[in-house]
Amino acid sequence: MPTGILTESPGTTASPAGISRRRLLGIALAAGVAPMFPDAAPVAARGLRRIRLTAAPAIVPLVGGEWPDTAVWAYNGIVPGPEIRVRQGDTVRLTARNELAEATTIHWHGVRLPFAMDGVPDLTQEPIPPGGEFVYEFGAVDAGTFWYHPHANSAEQVGRGLSGALVVEEPEPLRVDRDVVWVLDDWLLVDTAQIDAGFGHPMHMSHGGRLGNTITLNGTIPDEFAVRSGERVRLRLVNVSNARTFGLDFAELRPHVIALDGQPVAPYQPPGGRVVLAAAQRVDLVIDMGGRPGDRVSIADSYYRGRAYRFVDIVYSSEAPLRDSPLDAPIALPRNPLPEPVVDDQAQRETLLLEGGAMGRMPPNADRFLRDRQFWFLNGLPAKGHAESPLFTVELGRTCIVTLRNETGWEHPMHLHGHAFRVLRRNDEPNLRGEWLDTVLIPPQQSVEIGFVADNPGDWMFHCHILEHQMSGMSGIVRVA
Q1: Per residue, what are the HEC states of the chain?
Q2: Predicted confidence (pLDDT) per residue in 380-416, tens digit
Q3: Average pLDDT over every residue of 317-337
Q4: Which of 178, 266, 269, 452 has the most C-beta neighbours closer than 10 Å?
């Protein structure tokens, strides 16, 4: 099965007619003010990459073997969608065509881009109707591992297969033998290998989201991943599931984490070799395959207590080792041009209280929202569709410090559009690694403090990336103006 294709597309742009008041407001906020991406690591402008993606029903051998093929929704007929690779500094011009029976969009998760290209229906653009097209164009400002997915009816559209990886390569990539993407997904299937049609079930929405019963790696149930003794692999992990958190135990493979959510970190080995990815997160690893020819190493997913399973086996070929000792080359990545938040008295400080859900703290007057299946709340209110009023407004160019307090009984991977942020504190203690993320996992009854420079004007979604939570209230808007 192909991993994906980049295809040339016409230079014309076509989008649905009509612009909502909400979109006009967002465009007005952004008009005349370019995003202030400072030159911490200047990147020369490169080429224009023309790409086409078509969202449509498809049939794929998801389970394999003697099982029936599975009816999915797919980009360009494959699951996951085409692996898009560009270079930092490229301009991406992508024509999205909709052959579904409902409206859709494409959101470029983790990519810092102009507001009008963010792919949020009725906020940044009119949704793409059946038979329609929309042209997305943005610069690949940051190198790293990102992904794309719909933001219209997202729990069902992502849950039926619409997602794919976007890799922005560094101008001088790391010296490795292979650069590989693993797209991890979680499917809820019935006994005919078809997707369970029960999207929007109140149990999924009010509890931990729609957890599946079938795990795939790059669109198939994983069994073996072949390596050669002595080779160095850059492994890009992308979690595109609706709700599942993966905790992969690499153990004796001794991986080094070199990037989180596409943003470089000082290389480190995760404790016990366990790599955790919440829904929507990405982790870049460098692994020196130090086993002997013929060796086999099992990677297990042990995140959920009592539900561990073998994820995939790393299998060493019988070939002679590629080298006798690890490759003598650096693995640290250059930083991206992110503005550093200044934590001082001039920084704006905000608090977001996460409430609701089963077994969680409910705000006053919650009953009137529960009748509409709005189970989750940010500062006492749910978002039904896109909130008319922002959670808060930040002046363009100002540092904003946000404390997120999870008062619910469930974890929440909180995602901010249009920006990356530093994780400054966890549970009121300094976070020494200070990693940059766009999606931060907050366990129940814990808190996280993040900081970012509001350098990208517009109305940006801030929501839980357990998609059932997002669609049932845990979502809001941060205005940068």
Answers
A1: CCCCCCCCCCCCCCCCCCCCHHHHHHHHHHCCCCCCCCCCCCCCCCCEEEEEEEEEEEEECCCCCCCCCEEEEEECCECCCCCEEEECCCEEEEEEEECCCCCECCEEECCCCCHHHCCCECCCECCECCCCEEEEEEECCCCEEEEEECCCCHHHHHHCCCCEEEEEECCCCCCCCEEEEEEEEEECECCCCCECCCCCCHHHHHCCCCCCCEEEECCECCCEEEECCCCEEEEEEEECCCCCCEEEECHHHCCEEEEECCEEEEEECCHHHEEEECCCCEEEEEEECCCCCCCEEEEEECCCCCCCEEEEEEEECCCCCCCCCCCCCCCCCCCCCCCCCCCCCCCEEEEEEEEECCCCCCCCCCHHHHCCCCCEEECCECCCCCCCCCCEEECCCCEEEEEEEECCCCCEEEEECCCCEEEEEECCEECCCCCEECEEEECCCCEEEEEEECCCCEEEEEEECCHHHHHCCCEEEEEEC
A2: 888 755 556 899 999 999 999 999 999 999 999 999 9
A3: 96
A4: 452
Q: Identify which of 335, 341, 350 has the alpha carbon closest to the alpha carbon of residue 422.
A: 341
Cβ partners under 8 Å of residue 25, min gap 6 = 459
CA distances from 246 to 80, 184, 209, 343 (A): 18, 9, 14, 32
pLDDT in tens, 194-220: 999 999 999 999 999 999 999 999 999
| Percentage of residues in the chain having pLDDT higher than 70 | 89
Q: For residue 376, what pLDDT is reported? A: 92
